[in-house]
Amino acid sequence: MTLLQVLVILVLAPLVQGVLATTRAWLSGRPGPPFVQPYRDLVKSLKKAPRAGRSGSSLGFVAVGMALGTAVTILMLLPYIFGDGVRTAVLDVVALVFLFALGRAAMVLAALDGNSAFSAMAVGREIAFAAIVEAPFLLALLAARSTPSSALLAGSALFIVLLFESARVPVDNQETHYELTMIHEGMLLEYAGPVFAAWQYSAQLRQVAMAVLVAFVLAGSGLPMALCFVAVVAAIPFVEAFQAKMRLFDVPQLATAATLLAIAALGIDIVGGIR
Amino acid sequence: MQRLRWSASFLLAAVAASAAVLAARPLAPFVLRAPILSRYLTLVFASTSLARPFLAFLAIGVTVVAVWNLKRGRAGAGIPLAFFSAAMVAVLLAQSVFAFLLSWELMSLISIAIVATESERKSVRRATFAYALVSQLGALAMTIAFAMLAVHAGSGSFSAIGGAAASLTPMTRAEVLAGLFIGFGSKAGLVPLQFWLPRAHPAAPANASALLSGVMIEIALYALALATFVLVAPVGAIAGIILLIAGLAGALFGGLYASVESELKRLLAFSSIDHMGVMVSALGLAIAASALGFPALATIAFLAMLFHALNHTVLKTLLFLAAGTVVERMHHVTDLDRLRGLGSGALKRSAPWILVGCLAAAALPPSNAFVSEWLVFQGFIGATLSGNALLASLGTLGLFALLLGGGLAAAAFVKLFGIAFAGAPAPARESDTPEAFDAATIALAVSATLVLALGVFPLLVLHPLLVLAAGIVGTRAGALDATLANAARLAWLAAIPATVALLAWWYGRRTIERSDPAWSCGSAFPVRASYSATALTKPLRRIFAFALFPERQRTIVPTTSSDFPTQIAYAVKTRDLTSEAARSVAAFSQRLVRRLRVVQSGRMRAYIAYAAIAIALALVLGR
Fold this sequence. Notes:
- The structure holds two protein chains of two kinds.
- The relative contact order of chain A is 0.16.
- Chain A is built from eleven helices and one strand, in the order H-H-E-H-H-H-H-H-H-H-H-H.
- The termini of chain A are far apart.
- Chain A is globular.
- Chain A is an all-alpha fold.
- Chain A has helices at 2-27, 37-47, 59-77, 86-91, 93-114, 117-142, 148-165, 184-187, 193-219, 223-241, 251-274; one strand at residues 51-53.
- By secondary structure, chain B is mainly α.
- Chain B has 24 helices and five strands.
- In chain B, strands 1-2 form a two-stranded antiparallel ribbon. A two-stranded antiparallel ribbon of chain B has the order 4-5.
- The longest helix of chain B is centred in the middle third of the chain and has 35 residues, at 295-329.
- Chain B is globular, with a radius of gyration of 26 Å.
- Chains A and B meet through strand 1, helix 3, helix 5, helix 6 and helix 11 of A and helix 14, helix 15, helix 19, strand 3 and helix 21 of B.
């Protein structure tokens, strides 16, 4: 059963990305691409000949494999709609957070391997933000246990982490292609063809994984989680459409907010546990 | 020359081998007593169960250094290192106050001399001075504490002191612990006594740095564990909390400063402070949990500390020796802003191992440090969920600090490898020969293999370490079976990533065509336009400006038009408040000493008078 969910996510992850992009376009009054656009993009990239920058080394390939493998492993650790995922999730929250970190490290190494100043500029932002969302990530996952209020606080904290992790407004803007502002896209500037497709696909997998985690923290596993997952995915385009991207150095405040929310959630759990 | 190398490495290997033998089987106490001397001056040496794992860690670190030294480093450099290692072995074996102080001081003095190796540079002289000052002040505090303990027990042997510890008054206990924490903590690089470490450890030659950062600070950790679990046991929750908070502060400080540091060896030294912080916070948690009645939790934390100490020895010797290879191959350039593409250029053979080391230093899977940090996290999560309000708050605080510090350390090592090793190589110089797979590379390869082996099969060492930890904390080893089983499963996490990474590498080698330059808005991309490590960490410096106080200096040499300057110099520096505080304390004490110099008149009569006064005072006060 767990394998089934992994397979479903592997197939549907690009669709989630498409739904998010199209809904956001609708909300901001544009027709938007069809839902299946990400599949077309992936296929187009896969058909291209593999080429890479002159300034790169084979590290770029090792890194993309590492990131893709990490994303798949993360999916296998997720709490499940069908079956006993809760146990794994709570036991291995640390492993989960470190796997996300490993995937991110791989991506950052690949970006630096391309040796473009624009990629490196994005890397500088990515490593700074990654360092400050690590704490709310784990703390929020830990708090995913007892009362509805702590679940809500932890869920909000984790939702903010999701915005960081999947490069969403107000942290990053996937629709921009302006080298000086982007983070996620900026890191992949030097990549094209199948390698680029692999990067995009692993980012889509991680995005779904994050949404599943938010849903799990809010609603536990099983059917409530499935409904909650839909709600979380639906909430993202609203945030993106009605929010401006934050100034870069205001973003850490968002991470601080997530940390405080997560600590508050954990605090409620702790006080509840002691009584 | 080659013979000198071989004999130096042979000496090092001999020390490592004897440490390994002493680690393998307990040594009955070996007592040296001089009849005319006081009973406090007895020398006792034995290999206790607490010291034995540290002897093994030392043996591993020293062996790797010995192998590396066969090819690189100054030919004779291994000889003082062998004596230094022998002194560290003596510290681990010492079982009486006098033996301990003697070996500790020997270790300190030899290490000070080693740090001063390149004393023709002013920065090295200053670093040596700072290190010597801290080291001697620490030794002073430690000596006072040991003297109090020995007088209380009526004997200098550690077993007698440990036996009498229960009857210490709370006041004496606090004073003794303060003295020991200052003495050992200063060597361990514990905040706020860490300021000398990022200056002294990198000042030494790389093989010495490897032993200083990879082994000596673990000796200080051993000493802290010895003080809290043997000499003054039981120490109570407060001492544990102090260590825990100092450790967390170290993890944060080390991570933060490592993340913005651009000099290779200093970055590694900051990372040592970070890892030491992790270990000391685990030790503090073990003490606090044990005092508050959570023996299983205390055992996890103690086990995590021991395992992390081993892992840190392996990964930090690897990285410092790698830095030594960089120093030699790159003609003493260790500034990350000036290193580029070493992975496929000047350090082609070493780079894969260094990548493994960087992953380990960032505690990412599948490295050994990931497993031990995972264990540390299990300890802190356990504290958070323990149901005890104090432990739960400490656990939450600990998780926050360790994650932030860990995230920053990860940023530091991704930066290190990404900037210096990734990418295409810089054009080679005429004189450069391709890197050979020689003894130095083998040393790195062996450490990296050990990093991965300990990460994939952690139970090989966790089982024996657990027996020890349970014995010291005083609990059953069986209580942690579930945790250990989970730790063993962690290796599987990296199976898919590693496989896919290998496949992708193979695919890339087969098919890739490299023709296009990196994108720079359509213009040609000069090598000098590569992003520097300093620029990369600008966001971090801005986010953490409240702690780092970044300052930048830009000097522009204008021509007729200010828009087209001939030269722009740009420098960034961050401040370290503890270091500045230490500097002002040192300046103050130097002023004070200068004032006090009047009493040193140089006249014999004055000194006889001082002696007479001192004796009179001793007679009056000591009655």
